[in-house]
Structure formats: C-alpha cells, structure tokens
C-alpha cells in the first residue's frame, strides 16, 4: 500500500511533470472508482494544473480551482505514459486500469497518467471536488507527522487520549495521525524498539522521546530516499529498505533474530522479538487456531 513517503514522492514527481499542463480528458475504466458527481468529471477538461500535493495518503492534482484527488488504497499505483492510446479504455474485469488522465499534446505526443489497481478487492477512489476538505477522508485526517506542528508534545497529547489502545493501531489510524500505514508503523515501532501491542498511554517521557524520533526519522529518511525517483522506481526503493515489514522468517538487520508475524483477518504485522518484545514471541491467533 502506498503510504506517506511514496505518495509524497509521487506528488513531487508529478508536480514537475504536470504543472502548467492542460488536462484534456479523464477516462474512467473502473466505474466504481469515481466517488463524486458534482462537479461533473467533464468540468476538469481544459483546466491547467497548478500544483500536485499530498494530504496523508491522498494525492491531490489541483487544476484551475478544482481538485482531482486519488486515494490509491491497498493496491493502487500511478504510471506515467509518454503517450497514451488514442482509443479510450474500455471497462474490463481483466484490466488493472482504473483511471486515465490525458494531457495536452506536446512534441507530437499525448502523454498522461494511468492509475491502476491490482487484485480483486477494488478500493481505489477518485474524487473531483472544489476543495480537498470536500473529501470526507481528508477532512477527517489527523496531523501530518512531517509537519513542524507535529511536535513531541502533540504526540504526547495524542497518546494520552488514546489510553489503552495499542500503539500499532494508533499509528495506523488516519484520523489520529495522517499518512502512516501498515508498513511504516511496523518500521517505526522496530526503530523505537517497542511492542506493537504496547498501550499508547503508558509511555514514559524517555519512551515518548524515542517514539517521536522514530516517527520523524523513519518517515523523513524514506522521503529523502524517494525524492527525485520516478514513480516506477518507488516500490522497489521502499521494499529494499524495510527492516521488518514483509520480512517474516528473515533475519532482523539489527540483532539477527528471526522476524515474526502476527496475522489478522485482512492484514498482518511483522516485528523482531529481541528488539521489541524482550525476546518473547507475540501470540498469533491464526497459528494458535491451526495448532489446536
């Protein structure tokens, strides 16, 4: 799933490609992706792109006062095309294409963006709105962890309010802190040497300092590594720098212990027992059921 660092890098890459260009057409290949009807999608045709920004994990293409907003969900991605086909895409259950944004012709070519979504669970969303706040998911976002306003004191207030809720869930909840998903919450907790199940409101001042630094450093370093990369390179960059997420059964790069996993209904988390839980494996309900 694209998270804050990848969406930040996508916004930076697309800002350089799109700013000042005209959007000539937006084709919908997966009708379930379009979540708004007013203004109509045709309203963005002929507009000039002013900026491309990020709100949490939402990608916002601002064009002549309108905002073409994407949420890439779990399996969505954006691919730049130097030239898009002249024939509009047809809806197809076999295709991963969800949306195509066509730009004005340049040097005899009509470039554009293909927004795709892999898998059978379709959650990618497209909104055309007059203000980003018109998207409910953006309006509900918590503070951005890369903003200067996100301080240690701000984090302390958040964790105190969350009480006995587990750190993993607090970090992932977009209405609490914006932009952190499953992968980077695993990475942050590993860097902080904390259990994903640790209650949020129980941190000492030293632990708070450590967690705050882990959030800023983990996300900041990922953004720095991604800056300047093309969209096609971002997935590989992310995967190659993960310490525990998606590395179940492999050696922890810090201590050498085996990375373990806890599975849930539709997701899983990875952690290092030595680094994070005092050497004790966390209970995995899925494995417990299989062993009965």
Automatic annotation (TrEMBL):
UniProt key word DNA repair: yes
GO molecular function: 8-oxo-7,8-dihydroguanine DNA N-glycosylase activity; damaged DNA binding; DNA-(apurinic or apyrimidinic site) endonuclease activity; lyase activity; zinc ion binding
InterPro entries: FPG_cat, FPG_N, H2TH_FPG, Ribosomal_uS13-like_H2TH, Znf_DNA_glyclase/AP_lyase, Znf_FPG/IleRS
Pfam family, any one: zf-FPG_IleRS
Family annotation (SMART domains): Fapy_DNA_glyco, H2TH
Matches recorded under PROSITE patterns: FPG_CAT, ZF_FPG_2
Gene3D superfamilies in UniProt: 1.10.8.50, MutM-like, N-terminal
Domain FPG-type as annotated: residue spans: 243-277
Example GO BP: base-excision repair
Cofactor requirement: Zn(2+)
Domain Formamidopyrimidine-DNA glycosylase catalytic: residue ranges: 2-93
UniProt keyword annotations, A-Z: DNA damage, DNA repair, DNA-binding, Glycosidase, Hydrolase, Lyase, Metal-binding, Multifunctional enzyme, Zinc, Zinc-finger
Cytoplasm found in the keyword field: no
Stored PANTHER family: FORMAMIDOPYRIMIDINE-DNA GLYCOSYLASE
Family statement drawn from the similarity comment of this UniProt entry: Belongs to the FPG family.
Designated name of the protein: Fpg/Nei family DNA glycosylase
Source species of the chain: Nocardioides immobilis
